[in-house]
Amino acid sequence: MENYRLVPLISSEELVKCVDDLALRINRDYEGKSLIVVGILKGSFIFLADLVRKLAPALTLDFVRLASYGDQSETSGIVRMTKDLEVSVHGRHVLVVEDIVDTGITLKWFLDHLQHLEPESVKVCALIDKSERRRVNLSLDYVGISLEKGFLVGYGLDYSERHRNLPAIYEVLFD
Ligand code: IMP
Ligand code: MG
What we know:
Layout: E1 4-10, H1 12-29, E2 35-41, H2 45-52, E3 59-68, E4 79-83, E5 93-101, H3 105-115, E6 121-130, E7 142-147, E8 152-153, E9 169-174
Parallel strand pairs: 2-3, 2-5, 5-6, 6-7
Antiparallel strand pairs: 1-9, 3-4, 8-9
Helix pairs in contact: 1-2
Bound molecules: inosinic acid and magnesium ion.
């Protein structure tokens, strides 16, 4: 593995504030409704755990595991689902929770998959929207932090399965 350094980018305090703001907006939009929250594993697990504890609507939680072949820092464009939904989303309001949207290929693939299951509505909440490498057209309903580029770790995000447990977000700088 190449040598690299981690540079602090988003502090735990900023993350708390960011999740609070997202939850406020989601709570307003779903008032009086119940929803199914779908976390995309593995990266969203910490963000999702913090977010759902601030959500007011009645909700059911489910997870999918999506992976794309490729090297450590860029998607190959081929998406595999290694764990599918376990609850029915037919006729339900679905909120998809993703850690970071980069090319958008992973999320687009899952949104297309969801459409076949005929939910009542689908919205997306992404902690980070990283725009520079976007390759597909996507509308993200709730975005915590918008960035152009950078490879980030911590708060669920990994570099080659490392650093997911860091409580804040760091940028990986390769030497
Ligand atoms: P996309 O299909 O290119 O949008 O990539 C989406 C997935 O790649 C995300 O769900 C992450 O798991 C991973 N990913 C993209 N950018 C980063 C990053 O900066 N750090 C860690 N993982 C990332
Ligand atoms: Mg992910």
